[in-house]
Amino acid sequence: MLRSSVRKILxxxxxxxxxxxCQSPEPTITxxxxxxxxxxxxxxxxxxxxxxxxxxxxxxLSIADMHFIADSEHLNGTGEARLERYAELLAxxxxxxxxxxxxxxxxxxxxxxxxAREFLMQVSPGSKRIDIVLGMPRGRGMDAVxxxxxxxxAQQPEARGPxxxxxxxxxSGGSGN
Length: 177
Known about the structure:
By secondary structure, the chain is mainly α. The protein has a domain at 62-139. It has helices spanning 2-21, 40-60, 77-89, 106-123, 144-154; strands spanning 62-64, 95-100, 130-134. Strands 1-2-3 form a three-stranded parallel beta sheet, with helices on one face. The radius of gyration is 30 Å and the shape is elongated. It starts with a helix and ends in a 23-residue tail after the last helix.
């Protein structure tokens, strides 16, 4: 009796399992290619941190040698983006930006200041005047206690050995799973 009921039920169970296995798989996500459509989660995160970035820029009000092409008076992409953002942030109030440099070549420093000023005039015509002068960033910096604590943390040794090896990787003799 038990065998006859199993014979009757078994084909139904097999049919259900086969139809469940026939569903199309979910599309795979490729991590190293650009998204095919606009990713709204990144926009939301970017908008959230844009305010914080702007607050840091306004506290700092500076450009540095890293914003120029090495040994040249021309702005690099980072410098252009930074000055464009300053032009937007200071469009109604104007202000002063500080160029922080340790360069000794006064001709190159003067040329960089000229190029940065010209760039600001191009991206924000009709805005309040934004001047660029030599000087240190305006931010408060760090007091001695913060600096000493940061240096202490930076000097602590880190365990680098396990940081570059995955458990179960081929190099460590594992199965790869």
